[in-house]
Amino acid sequence: GAGVSQTPSNKVTEKGKYVELRCDPISGHTALYWYRQSLGQGPEFLIYFQGTGAADDSGLPNDRFFAVRPEGSVSTLKIQRTERGDSAVYLCASSLTRSGDGYTFGSGTRLTVV
Amino acid sequence: AQKVTQAQTEISVVEKEDVTLDCVYETRDTTYYLFWYKQPPSGELVFLIRRNSFDEQNEISGRYSWNFQKSTSSFNFTITASQVVDSAVYFCALSENRDDKIIFGKGTRLHILP
After folding, report:
1. B101–A59 CB contact, under 8 Å
2. How far is residue A80 from each of residues A20, A32, A54, A66, B97, measured CA to CA in Å?
3. Least CB-CB distance to A42: which of B44, B101, B106?
4. pLDDT computed for residue B101 by the predictor
5. Model confidence over A38-74: pLDDT tens digits?
6. Run of H or E residues at B111
7. Is there a contact between A92 and A33 (Cβ–Cβ < 8 Å)?
8. Mutation site for A-interface testing, chosen from B52, B101, B103, B106 by largest number of A Cβ within 10 Å
9. Average pLDDT of chain B to the nearest whole number
10. B88 touches B67 (CB < 8 A)
11. In sequence order, which ranges of B1-114 are alpha helices (DSSP H)?
12. How many CB atoms lie within 10 A of CB B46?
């Protein structure tokens, strides 16, 4: 597609539930990144994929967070047993090669845990 | 460890005034990239500029200019003759060459008053 697409744009879930957030990168972009942005803060790195593999998952806050990219294109961020502190905007970005080229960000998924 | 500091949390200026957004970074790498992104009220992060550590030339793009000074580890952003449409949150960011994630500052919220 023309840009990075994220779905849903908004998600409200109850504490303790499981959620999946989807990211469709720009066609041909091999690198894909997930970030989380809390209110009034800058985006915080979560995980980076190069192709199908997670090249760097050092930003995932705990084992409730997991992400996959099985075919090297679409990625899904999965959050188990959601907590109110998980409420944030989850941003996905893709780039053609490494981060030196700069990312293209999607519009994000606003997750609210009630 | 890499770090980006944007000391100005919020700035308000009257339209047509010039305004400079400060950015100070920390890195142990000799090769790195610096970025500025704009986040308008719509929420999407918009890429503005990328500089690599070997290119200290200042850059001008229309009303925007960037001053990169390795001696002070700063990468400041100036908007000349500001316009209301420039109102947004601006993020400075850093990526080390050996790494593929971009580390963002906390952002500066810029208000351009008519």
Report:
1. yes
2. 9, 21, 19, 8, 33
3. B106
4. 85
5. 998 999 999 999 989 998 999 999 999 999 999 989 9
6. strand B108-113
7. yes
8. B101
9. 93
10. no
11. none
12. 14
